[in-house]
Prior knowledge:
The complex is a heterodimer.
Chain A: H1 28-32, H2 37-65, H3 76-111, H4 120-142, H5 156-159, H6 165-191, H7 204-236, H8 249-283, H9 290-303, H10 319-347, H11 356-379, H12 381-387, H13 391-415, H14 417-421, H15 427-454, H16 468-498, H17 542-550
Helix pairs in contact in A: 2-3, 2-4, 2-16, 3-4, 3-6, 3-7, 3-8, 3-13, 4-6, 6-7, 7-8, 7-9, 8-9, 8-10, 8-13, 9-10, 10-11, 11-13, 11-15, 13-15, 15-16
Chain B: H1 2-8, H2 19-50, H3 71-100, E1 107-114, E2 117-121, E3 127-129, E4 131-135, E5 140-146, E6 151-155, E7 160-164, E8 170-174, E9 180-186, E10 198-204, H4 206-216, H5 244-255, E11 280-282, E12 288-290, H6 293-301, H7 324-336, E13 371-373, E14 376-378
Parallel strand pairs in B: 1-5, 4-10
Antiparallel strand pairs in B: 1-2, 2-3, 5-8, 6-7, 6-9, 9-10, 11-12, 13-14
Amino acid sequence: MTNPAPETAPVLPIAGDQPDYLHWTSGVSSWLFTRDHKRIAIMFYVAVISMLGLGGFFALALRTELLTPGRTIMDATTYNRLFTLHGVTMVWLFLIPSIPTVFGNFLVPIQIGARDLAFPRLNLASFYIYLLGALVTIGGMVAGGTDTGWTFYTPYSDQTPTRLVPVLVGIFILGISSILTGLNFIVTIHRLRAPGITWRNLPLFTWSIYATSLILVLATPVLGMALGLIGLDHGLGLGLFDPAVGGDPVLFQHIFWFYSHPAVYIMILPAMGVISEIVPTFSHRRPASYMAIVVSTIAIAFVGFLTWGHHMFVAGISELDAGFFGALSMFVAVFSAIKVFTWVMTLRRGSIRFNTPMLYFFAFLFLFVFGGMTGVAVATQSLDVHWHDTYFVVAHFHFIMVGGSLTGFLAAAYYWFPKMFGRMYDERVGMVGAAAVFVGFFVTFMPQFLLGNMGMPRRYYSYPAHFQWLHVLSTAGAFILGSALLLALGNLLVALVNGKRAIANPWHSRSFEWLTTSPPPKNNFGATPNLSYSPYDYSLTEEQARAQASSR
Amino acid sequence: MNELLRRLLFLPPQASTISSSVDHLHYVVILTTIASAIGLSLLSLYWIVRYRRRESDDIEPPAESAPTTSLWVELGIAGLLFALFFAWWIVGFGQYLRMRVAPANTYDVYVTAKQWMWKFAYPEGAHSIAQLYVPAGRPIRLVMSSRDVIHSFYVPDFRLKQDVLPGRYTTLWFEAPTPGKHEILCAEYCGTNHSTMRAEVVVLSPEDFGRWLAGRGGDPTTAAPPDGDPAVVTSVGPGKPMSLERVGEQVAAQVGCLRCHTLDGTPHIGPTWAGVYGTQVPLADGTHVLADGEYLTESMMDPMVHIRAGFQPVMPSYLGRLQPAETAAIVELIKSLRDVQAPSPGVVPPSQQGLAPPGVTVMPRMQGDVRVGPNGPEVPQP
């Protein structure tokens, strides 16, 4: 692997003479009450990584329990609570906020040449509301937890003897944070673009955060409604979803998936945005088709709202509904496939440097295509009848959520590490970490596809003995994956202290965030840059690009 | 070819009339998935190596940037993909319709799901728990409803699944061509013991099924065995007189008490019944209560009133589910266990590894379990 920072003629970043955002003030309160989007992003970073650790710990406990067909380390009630907590933690405390609140927060204003988000105070409020939501949710877990699964299906959730309400309240609060974050991004991207940036040269990562924000703002209120109604059902016996008093349990599934299927795109679109930045940068070439990526991003965000019924093929919906929902789900898959082809075509005739972010891209590519195609498979109605609620579905969505979103998160963490902290990570350890994440992931989840084919239902505390050897394999993979994640994140932690100083643009990217210093100054740029060229125009040299950006 | 792919993909046997056609679509879809993931990865790998940046390369590539892919190429790829997916949709949706729309002249069986068991009732008046008996070579329609929460009736060997809802009926039909036994699993999470909510389909030849029905017909309160091997069931006459505690044991197995409570003192989801009668039992609120007939009856009918210390409040109420005589029989059973000593804690007998609480006559689910006959547990013939 080549050293990413050959010292060529110095190219001066357009940052003026200000101290960087990490050093312009110091002290605890300068962080806790900051309105700087970059510092808020770092605070989110610490928070979501902690949540990833918590959710990962739950996952390892679950996998350990599943080593034997009967009891291994915990009883059935504890197991049922743990898989609920694993789902709730990973979905609402890690995956949904992860890339938007950390990398979106840090990079969207810089990518559009702005000094900050449109509403800096609201941004800080988003962080504290997230923190409050996380504390209430975790508090609810500690104070007994709940055992309904993260899907809260009625009428079981009406009747569960465990304490459901604190967890619902926590997630409701997290939803408020999501909506505020989404609004802030939408307004920022509409109103604060530097001169020259139009919808035709907006960086692709910013496009993906924009589309994600639209979903956050449109879908999250429906989640709030679903949680509120179920809270009333459980707490006060309202009975909306309880057939004993005339309610309809399937109605809940419709409301829940109306949010939760678009939520899948909240989790994956930002990761796609990260990949859309990494591939042109390391290929040193413009994307094979900028328009194809933009159009598919927006299409996924909107068509994603029309597919929720594919979660309900065996729930008792009509055959006609199943037909429509299946077709619309495949329609969404076509747009994802267009992105994949565009990334792959971008490699062709590039000048490709292969660093850790590219290895993550390669892992992402295989896992996302496999996971996405199994998504089309489960949207095929007759096949879904066998697979629904089995480990096949569990493996499928982990391929998208872990293989897609988490891999995208790690790719972003490595790609933008020099930008965020001004230091280089260790390339060899980075490569080993990325390879180990892939291997661990594959060993964990590939057996689960086979378990699903064999007919192993999900959320089973005990299981028939002939499933055992695949479960043992999967558990071994989970521990490999856990160690690999520690290695990958540990490498960055070490680099934070010991890493070599990074130059402003170590990857020689043309994307706008690399115009300024690494780490950026508080105001991002010395003066508002003029960004009237494409962020993927590699026909410009670095000097030409910089000259253009500083021209008035 | 079919058999090879089925084994490679770890699919269970194809035991219903629709399962092999579903599997054929499965092979096409999954092989396409594997091929596209590997193919795209290899193509990228090739290009990453082929177009790697060389030392001789300038930092900046030639000013003339590589051409972009035209929109028509993108649209062409999208169109091809859509055609492929549409073909799957046509086949898959057609199969789905065949699965969902039952033919005429089905034999109907009524299924009741509840936490955590399956009950089956036949038009002739017979009924069974945990074992669904059906004739081979005839379409069977299940008319299903739940007594409490949503369950899902799943038979992997048939490639069929249908949620079972409270307050409404859902149906599922199948036809098994040959006699055999197939596992039934609950696929929708339904509470603490979701994973033990299993049963089996026993497909009999039409003659055997007729004999089984004849043996099962008539008054359902007759003390017929809750289960029996269909080959021997016709030889079982009306039940011999049984002691009350024996009846209690049988009822406890039938209604599911023994899913959570043990008879030999081993800890499980609920408190053991061994050595409890007549003692002062500790409650979650710190007080004690005398375990007499009154307390035990209350625990069955209104279990949330007095929660035993150290146990989760997960027991469902049996109000309306147990006849007074059955309640009395269970109390009598618990009374008979007053002198059974609980084993020292920490010792887990080997039978604990499985699903069944140890030393207990459970409601039979799988082959090899101890079966409860009218005269107590019967060990199946080897």
